[in-house]
Amino acid sequence: MKRTIGLIGKKLGMTSVFGDDGKFIPVTVIQAGPCPVIQKKVQEKDGYSAIQIGFDAMAGHRLNKPARGHQAKAGMGYYRKLMEFSPDNVDEYEPGQELSVEIFKPGDRIKLTGTSKGKGFAGVMKRWNFSGLPRTHGHEKVHRSPGAIGQCADPGKVFKGRKMPGRMGNKTVSYKNAEIISVRSRENVILVKGQVPGPKDGFVVLQKQD
Amino acid sequence: MNIMQQIQQEQMRTDIPTFKAGDTIKVHVRIIEGEKERIQVFQGTVLRVKRGTTNSTFLVRKISDGVGVERVFPLNSPFIEKVEVVTRGKVRQGRIYFLRKLRGKAARIKARTDWHKNN
């Protein structure tokens, strides 16, 4: 799906703040931007129109030559994370321009995307909230097992999509309607109500939503 | 100071006096009823102070018409107008939950005198 205009950020951690009405609000602190426009994709040349923005400045010599050359064109330094956004008004952005937290304001609802914390190979109780089997009444060594996974000789197979143990977490998670509590433009920090997927220092994408 | 600490620091109140379990305090709470706003005083013994950053709370117990009433206040809440320390109590624990089982004379707390401090 196309991304509307937004920023790339880094999760700094969670705390709580008192709102204007005195209520205690849990917030996640996100270091968002400033994100310079590195490249502009144009319909004629690339087949679509978009802007590419960068985040998390790094030393240029750590990049390989093609990546360095690509980012050098904009002349805005070198960045660890590059991402494309396709706002309706692509024409208004030019390489070298900088996007800051000021595109958001308190009270806005945004879409947040992050990579959830990896949980490794997890059983069905943790991964799918199964109830498990009884502790007692003759059950032995199966307390956290899934139980039956299908029928008998007919159909004689396990249906696809059966919830089973496996790798959990470390997936891209998005959700909408995250409320912005405050925007601190001096520090380029945004406070979002509630949790945000991923660990501290994990990358998150903040997008405007209609 | 990093940004996280800075945000927390801004939320903290510095105007509230220090008190601990065993102290008798008066908490002036702002109460909003519809349009009107008034201040209610809750006086009682502090059972515990839960330390934290922005989420510190304290628990105050009083006996109201023979019934024990306990209330938890967020230490940094803007609803707290002010806190007055009435007496300082001498207790050995940081959390004096045993006070809940005691009634009348047994529930008294000796006054503490801080000779080394000038208060």
Structural key phrases:
heterodimer, A: 210 residues, mainly beta, Elongation Factor Tu (Ef-tu), domain 3, 6-stranded antiparallel beta barrel, 4-stranded antiparallel beta sheet, 3 helices, extended, B: 119 residues, 5-stranded antiparallel beta sheet, 1 helix, 8% helix, globular
Task: Compile the SSE list and pairings.
The complex is a heterodimer of chains A (210) and B (119).
Chain A: E1 6-18, E2 24-32, E3 35-41, H1 43-46, E4 50-58, H2 65-72, E5 78-85, E6 98-99, E7 109-115, E8 120-122, H3 124-128, E9 166-168, E10 172-184, E11 189-193, E12 203-208
Antiparallel strand pairs in A: 1-2, 1-12, 2-11, 3-4, 3-6, 4-5, 7-10, 7-12, 8-9, 10-11
Chain B: H1 3-11, E1 24-33, E2 36-50, E3 57-64, E4 67-74, E5 80-87
Antiparallel strand pairs in B: 1-2, 1-5, 2-3, 3-4
- The radius of gyration of chain A is 23 Å
The backbone outline of chain A, from C-alpha atoms, is: extended
Strand order of the largest sheet of chain B: 4-3-2-1-5
Helical fraction of chain A: under 10%
Which structural class is indicated by helix and strand composition of chain A? mainly beta
Name the shape of chain B in a single word.
Answer: globular
Low-confidence stretches of chain A: none
Number of domains of chain A: 1
